Amino acid sequence: MSETTAAVTADSTPAGVVIAESATARGRRARVALRALQVALALFYAIASALPKLIGHASAAESFERLGWGSAGMYTIGVLELAGAIALLIPVLQSVAAMALGALMVGAFVVQISVFDGQYAATPVILIVPLTLIAWARREHNADLLRLLRRA
């Protein structure tokens, strides 16, 4: 038996070493990781981002007053973020929600640069990366959403 043949036999494989992994197992882990990312982002948008706006926390109110948008703008952005957070968890809406939240983050980046001198401009840019990944990975759900809308 040659060294190459011996390396791939079950008897010669050291414990804990994976020679080949099935595509199904990799795909399953990728789907679970993507779903975990969606849940983490949904929690971030709902709790850390939308909640302060919706309860009128002083820091959020101050920022929106400085923008000149007042409480109406603050509540509107809070509702959009909460809706996006919820939609990230609904299979047929995942891709569209990620795209919408990404667009919201582009707006947040522009506001951070133009009004707040870039103080927190990195946050929306960082959030755009996983949102883009989700929008791309879940894009097949867009066809499902279109079918549902056409039936209605």
Automatic annotation (TrEMBL):
Its main location: membrane. It is found in: Membrane. It is a multi-pass membrane protein. Keywords: Membrane, Transmembrane, Transmembrane helix. The chain crosses the membrane at residues 32-52, 72-90, 97-115, 121-137. InterPro entries: DoxX (IPR032808). The keyword Transmembrane helix applies. GO terms for cellular component: membrane. Pfam families: DoxX_2. The keyword Transferase does not apply. This is DoxX family protein. It comes from Streptomyces qaidamensis. The lineage of its organism: Bacteria, Bacillati, Actinomycetota, Actinomycetes, Kitasatosporales.
